[in-house]
Amino acid sequence: MLAQQTAGLPLTVTKGQKILGIRRAILNLERAVFYFIWGSKWEREREPVSSVRGLAIGEPSQVWRNVNHPALPNRLRDLSWMVAHEVLPVRSVMHSRGLLQSATCPRPGCGAPKSVRHLLWECSAAVDQWAIAGSLQFPYLPAGEVLTAQLMLYGVGLSPNSKKDFTRIWLTLAATKDAIWTSRNLLVGRHMQIPPVAMIRMAAATVREAVAAGGGP
Ligand SMILES: [Zn+2]
Fold first, then answer.
1. Is the sign of the CA dihedral 193, 120, 79, 17 positive or negative?
2. Ligand 1 center to residue 122 CA distance, Å?
3. 72 C-alpha vs ligand 1 centroid, how far in Å?
4. Cα–Cα separations (whole angstroms), residue 157 to 60, 95, 174
5. Which end of the chain is more exposed for a tag (fewer CB within 10 A), N or C?
6. 81 CA → ligand 1 middle, Å
7. Is pLDDT of 154 > 90?
8. Ligand 1: distance of its center to the CA of 126 in Å?
9. Average of pLDDT values for 4-13?
10. How confident is the model at residue 137 (pLDDT cuts 50, 70, 90)?
11. Is the dihedral of CA 133, 52, 210, 5 positive or negative?
12. Ligand 1: distance of its center to the CA of 49 in Å?
């Protein structure tokens, strides 16, 4: 039902708030599962300088600075941290811990092994999302070959003109990842398919919230 609602644009404030409410509830649930698996938040503080697979020497420290970037609200910091550790509770992570029988992507017709990278970058839903993100709401997002998986996942590999530019890009990337994650959760939990343009609107709303809260560029 919600998918039908979000397909009609523009979204009203009420519908947008409903989506945000669902998103928060689902993220809280996912977070509870995550902490159940990985232990207390205290563990998070103990490992601020772990290496990140596939990054050049020196980049991991940049990754952990980005995870805790002051422009990100706590929810996006949590998400960024789980992405950097590759422990976002996607199906492959849950499957490897015996919590799910299937480890494949829940998108209709996909069936690829579900990993954090697949969810946020390789799945056709994510490809569509990134393809329209810049042209619709975020014209300052890097596009084409400049927007790499490592920039999207970790915020590395870009030479921005200024700290302010990086903040704007990084906040937008985090908000867009959050929208993809929320969309996936609505698909898995409620069998709702959220149109890419509605996902972009969710990301834009998250950016506006963060900026209004004083964290934006
Ligand atoms: Zn997929």
1. negative
2. 7
3. 27
4. 12, 32, 16
5. N
6. 22
7. yes
8. 8
9. 45
10. confident
11. positive
12. 31
Within 13 A of 5's CA, how many CA atoms are on the CB side? 12
User: Residue 44 burial by CB count (10 A; 0-12/13-18/19+): exposed, middle or buried?
Assistant: middle
pLDDT tens for residues 24-40?
666 666 666 555 555 54
In whole angstroms, how far apart are CA 85 and each of 44, 51, 192?
10, 9, 28
Rounded Cα distance between 158 and 111, Å, is: 32
* Ligand 1 centroid distance, CA of 42 (Å): 33
Measured in Å, residue 118 CA sits from the centre of ligand 1 at 6
CB atoms within 10 A of CB 143: 14
Please compute, for residue 18, the number of CA atoms within 13 A of its CA located in the half-sphere on the CB side: 12
Confidence of residue 180 (pLDDT cuts 50, 70, 90): very high
Q: How confident is the model at residue 111 (pLDDT cuts 50, 70, 90)?
A: confident
pLDDT for position 140: 83
Predicted confidence at residue 10, as pLDDT, reads 44
57 alpha carbon – ligand 1 mean position (Å): 31
Q: How many other CB atoms are there within 10 angstroms of residue 68's CB atom?
A: 11
